[in-house]
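User: Could you go from structure to sequence for me? I need the amino acid at each position, not a summary. Structure tokens:
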């Protein structure tokens, strides 16, 4: 599913215009993005949690040459689905 598909679904299910539907979807993504950039956790009941985690600098290996390299620290985004979503995906509920 793409962003365009989401916009189309919002349009069909709410009765808003396509422009309003696009604005709503964009607004939701912008809010989520800004909160994640600030390191905040996003918890959506019945769906799951988005969490930004810090990964420390570590040693790694270049797979082509075998040389040791330093992998810089970075922030990563993780998603953990809720039990409700997992059950829904597995047709358990």
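Assistant: Here is the amino acid at each position, in order:
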């Amino acid at each position: 599913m793409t962003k365009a598909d989401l916009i189309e679904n919002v349009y069909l299910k709410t009765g808003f215009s396509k422009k309003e539907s696009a604005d709503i979807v964009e607004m939701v993504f912008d809010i989520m993005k800004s909160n994640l950039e600030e390191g905040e956790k996003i918890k959506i009941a019945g769906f799951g949690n988005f969490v930004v985690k810090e990964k420390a600098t570590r040693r790694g290996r270049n797979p082509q040459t075998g040389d040791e390299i330093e992998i810089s620290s970075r922030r990563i985004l993780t998603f953990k689905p809720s039990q409700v979503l997992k059950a829904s995906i597995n047709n358990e509920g």
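One structural detail worth keeping in mind: Strands lie at 42-44, 48-55, 58-61, 68-71, 74-81.
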